Design the sequence.
């Protein structure tokens, strides 16, 4: 492919951002680029950034769609802070994304699109190609549109179709820049356009035209980059988003528990993919009811749980609010159910496509009465699989609702995922009562776990009635007896507390004692670990305790806190986990650091904050 | 419902006593609910269904205490949500024989959404909707079926709302089975309960029920000894719509509307009277029948509509069976290893 002598520079990790109009195919371009990272054996994480509107007006800032990939020879924890390379298909994506490019970074621009009209639409008074706007960057001015057209002139294709494929020209440039092979993209074209060979040829040609263009232009000085394979554990890998990982974790739990999966759910951003994904897998026996509303979503699941399904409902913050009363019903009837809350920026409708950690208090306390539930939070797109599995196991074995918190970042972001074997996952043994068990009483409890048993309608000899009214201990009849109510409230709370006996102790990353402990939870894990490692590199005595089990907390939590001089709790909210920790651990002083902009933390801002805190007397 | 195919020979002979729970029935003396419960306990052993396969579900309200009094599997849910609860139960296990007890507040106000959607999906559950046109358990506020102008605790100047007609709403929501009965006629209740049980799909029975405390005699124009013959039309499939103490009145179709007429007057003979067809898919006549009310018309009782359509859960089961056969994904390991993967 190449004849010139090239200089190849090795990089530890690279962040690339593709940005265009929402119709420019940036998600596809990004995903095809990710495939080559997989083939090259890199570790990587991706994140799509798209507007709430499906097709906002073309050429405007509101309509910009982006896709970021962070790939590396080193272990990749996040989709990256600032981009090393930005591909901007139009002026609006340039305007919107310039702030996310590293100073000195490379920007590839389709200069054909920089007409006066489109500059105005993007809100540029002057053409940024002609003034100082881009002086700190390595700008590659590429007439992508016209060269795309030229490259397939001979095929006599419709102009609209050709223009739709200019993203492949941009991808070709990136392939050259990072020494990528055509194979995976070619295979994709062959599959996607099976019925139209002309389009296969066109896309292959355009991709190669982009590649050849990059090879010849002087701006690159024939320098290309490689990122060596990452030191990943041996095994079979795939790319997975948080929502798909969640759905698959639930399916795995259904299979391991021998229960049929039931999902009752109402579409809501950014959780809908869980509903869509599970509805695909009828061959695994999954039954999915797209309910008429959020309430029917959870209540049908409670009914399904009563009838013996492993039942789940999935939603986001506004939907969790609507489900609160029904969660109380599941608490009272002590039936297993998993509620997945893919958090987004609130309150109210908030910013549906932006991520936030602000449903924690709602998950912990959002119900009437004394109504403890287990709360678990995943921390990476791929470990959504394992935490969905753990949530399911705890729900079924302890006969209680479990809220699993993920968020928009985890849900839509994707990561490299080492494929596990289902048989290697921990077993799930729900306490199902056998037919004609004469010892069965609806509210008799397991002496260790305090869970009641699961007597499934249709089973001989176990007819019983349950419901939302307070239940008489052991027998389960309706009871308004004062002492019984206190006893039952205490049982339900203690049942959840005792789950602490069945979860892993909290881990600490870094020295077991030191000057500063960073305490975090949820999707901020990646950026926390990068920040803490950066601090450790600077010689600071900083460790990280990232929590997955929120309620109950691991039993060694206080012991960990006691080993550090200072504790800081950074969160993407106004301080919810820190409030909860202050409630339980009044003996410690918790500093907090909060950001609530619909954006993730940046490594740099955290390092600055931590250093500042260490310097304070 | 009729889908419980357990071999009847295997079934022990059941009686009403098998379905009485040990809980004290706490409805007011004279409440119409007692008659409904008693009819239900009489019907259950006659259905040819194992007692462990019956599930009774409810929401909140006086009617919703029902599950506690019936010795089956039972679930007393939260206000308005019984239809969603029942849906999850039936979809999980289509072999179960699912009954739902609800009221005009529970299903038509707070649970209106679930009510119309369960009918639209045609999930095979049987709904007993106790319509007393008032909120009883919260002590006397007006409900979505309270007649306009009625003074209640929350409408001291008379309600200014337009009430729902249960049948009209149900048929509008594509309900495949709608019947109506009165709490004063247990025979009629048991008959329509049997019909509802046989019907594949959501069966809705509206039971005009009296609340002795907060709206006594609400249905007396229809149920009192003096007026019931003139104000009740007992529908029978394939039979002419004749009513009246002397069986001398009937329902005719005049133009596009129904008319109550005297047989023998103005040359009208029995041949002119409409013959009831509960199975016609077109809902026109069914809607008109459901809406008939005194003083112009008698109230239509019995099965008004019973049409065939597939049920949600049967269709779902059949898709699952097909997918299990044709899909290459037979277990979660297959799924995890499907699509694009690579070795390291």
Sequence:
């Amino acid at each position: 492919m190449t004849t010139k002598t090239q200089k190849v520079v090795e990089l530890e990790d690279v962040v690339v951002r593709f940005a265009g109009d929402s119709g420019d195919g940036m998600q596809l371009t990004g995903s095809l680029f990710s495939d080559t990272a997989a083939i090259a054996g890199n570790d990587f994480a991706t994140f799509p950034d798209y507007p709430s509107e499906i097709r906002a007006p073309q050429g405007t800032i509101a309509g910009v769609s982006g896709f970021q990939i962070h790939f590396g020879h080193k272990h990749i924890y996040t989709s990256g802070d600032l981009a090393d390379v930005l591909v901007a298909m139009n002026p609006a994506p340039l305007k919107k994304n310039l702030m996310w490019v590293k100073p000195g970074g490379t920007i590839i621009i389709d200069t054909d699109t920089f007409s006066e009209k489109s500059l105005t639409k993007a809100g540029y008074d002057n053409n940024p190609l002609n003034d100082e706007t881009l002086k700190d960057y390595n700008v590659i001015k590429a007439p992508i549109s016209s060269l795309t057209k030229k490259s397939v002139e001979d095929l006599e294709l419709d102009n609209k179709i050709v223009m739709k494929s200019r993203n492949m020209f941009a991808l070709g440039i990136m392939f050259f820049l990072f020494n990528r092979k055509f194979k995976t993209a070619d295979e994709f074209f062959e599959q996607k356009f099976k019925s139209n060979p002309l389009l296969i040829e066109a896309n292959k040609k355009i991709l190669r035209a982009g590649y050849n263009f990059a090879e010849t232009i002087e701006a690159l000085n024939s320098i290309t980059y490689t990122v060596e394979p990452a030191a990943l554990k041996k095994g079979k890998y795939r790319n997975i988003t948080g929502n798909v990982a969640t759905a698959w974790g639930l399916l795995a739990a259904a299979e391991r528990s021998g229960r049929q999966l039931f999902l009752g759910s109402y579409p809501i951003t950014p959780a809908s993919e869980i509903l869509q994904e599970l509805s695909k897998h009828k061959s695994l026996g999954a039954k999915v009811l797209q309910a008429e509303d959020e309430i029917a979503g959870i209540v049908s699941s409670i009914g399904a749980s009563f009838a013996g399904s492993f039942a789940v409902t999935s939603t986001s913050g506004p939907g969790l609010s609507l489900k609160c009363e029904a969660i109380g019903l599941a608490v009272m009837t002590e039936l297993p159910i998993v509620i997945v809350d893919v958090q987004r920026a609130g309150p109210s409708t908030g910013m549906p496509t932006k991520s936030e950690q602000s449903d924690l208090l709602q998950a912990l306390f959002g119900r009437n009465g004394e109504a403890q539930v287990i709360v678990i939070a995943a921390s990476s797109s791929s470990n959504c699989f394992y935490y969905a599995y753990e949530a399911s196991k705890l729900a079924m074995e302890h006969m209680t609702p479990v809220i699993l918190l993920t968020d928009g970042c985890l849900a839509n972001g994707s990561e490299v995922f080492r494929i596990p074997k289902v048989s290697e996952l921990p077993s799930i043994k729900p306490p199902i009562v056998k037919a004609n068990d004469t010892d069965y009483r609806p509210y008799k409890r397991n002496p260790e776990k305090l869970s009641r048993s699961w007597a499934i309608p249709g089973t001989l000899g176990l007819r019983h009635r349950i419901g939302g009214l307070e239940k008489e201990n052991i027998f389960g009849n309706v009871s308004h007896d004062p002492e019984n109510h206190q006893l039952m409230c205490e049982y339900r709370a203690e049942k959840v507390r005792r789950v602490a006996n069945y979860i892993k102790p909290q881990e600490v990353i870094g020295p077991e004692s030191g000057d500063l402990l960073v305490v975090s939870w949820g999707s901020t894990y990646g950026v926390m670990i990068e920040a803490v490692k950066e601090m450790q590199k600077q010689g600071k005595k900083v460790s990280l305790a990232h929590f997955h089990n929120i309620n109950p907390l691991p039993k060694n939590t206080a012991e960990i806190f006691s080993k550090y001089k200072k504790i800081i709790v950074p969160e993407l909210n106004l301080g919810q986990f820190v409030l909860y920790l202050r409630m339980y651990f009044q003996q410690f002083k918790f500093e907090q650091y909060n950001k609530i902009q619909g954006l993730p933390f940046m490594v740099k801002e955290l390092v600055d904050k931590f250093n500042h805190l260490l310097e304070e007397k | 419902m009729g889908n419980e195919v357990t071999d009847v020979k295997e079934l022990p002979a059941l009686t009403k006593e098998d379905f009485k729970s040990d809980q004290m029935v706490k409805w007011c003396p004279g409440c119409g609910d007692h008659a409904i419960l008693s009819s239900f306990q009489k019907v259950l052993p006659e259905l040819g269904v194992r007692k462990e396969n019956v599930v009774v579900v409810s929401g909140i309200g006086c009617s919703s205490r029902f599950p506690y009094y019936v010795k089956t599997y039972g679930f007393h849910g939260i206000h308005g949500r019984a239809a969603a609860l029942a849906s999850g139960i039936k979809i999980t296990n289509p072999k179960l024989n699912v009954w739902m007890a609800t009221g005009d507040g529970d299903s038509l106000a707070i649970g209106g959404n679930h009510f119309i959607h369960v009918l639209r999906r045609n999930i095979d559950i049987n709904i007993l909707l106790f319509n007393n046109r008032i909120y009883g358990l919260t002590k006397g506020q007006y409900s979505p079926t309270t007649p306009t102008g009625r003074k209640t605790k929350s409408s001291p100047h008379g309600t200014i709302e337009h009430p729902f007609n249960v049948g009209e709403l149900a048929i509008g929501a594509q309900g495949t089975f709608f019947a109506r009965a009165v709490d004063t006629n247990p025979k009629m209740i048991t008959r329509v309960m049997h019909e509802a049980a046989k019907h594949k799909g959501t069966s809705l029975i509206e039971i005009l029920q009296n609340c002795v405390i907060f709206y006594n005699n609400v249905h007396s124009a229809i149920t009192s000894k003096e007026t019931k013959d003139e104000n009740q039309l007992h529908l029978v499939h394939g039979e002419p719509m004749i009513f009246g103490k002397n069986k001398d009145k009937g329902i005719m179709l005049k133009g596009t509307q129904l008319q109550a007429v005297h047989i023998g007057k103005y040359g009208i003979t029995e041949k002119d009277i409409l013959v009831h067809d509960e199975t016609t898919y077109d809902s026109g006549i069914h809607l008109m029948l459901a809406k008939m009310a005194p003083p112009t018309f008698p109230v239509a009782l019995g099965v008004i509509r019973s049409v065939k359509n597939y049920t949600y859960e049967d269709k779902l089961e059949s898709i699952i069976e097909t997918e299990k056969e044709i899909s290459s994904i037979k277990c979660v390991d297959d799924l995890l290893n499907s699509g694009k993967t690579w070795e390291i």
Remarks:
- Chain B touches chain A through 58 residues (CB under 8 Å).
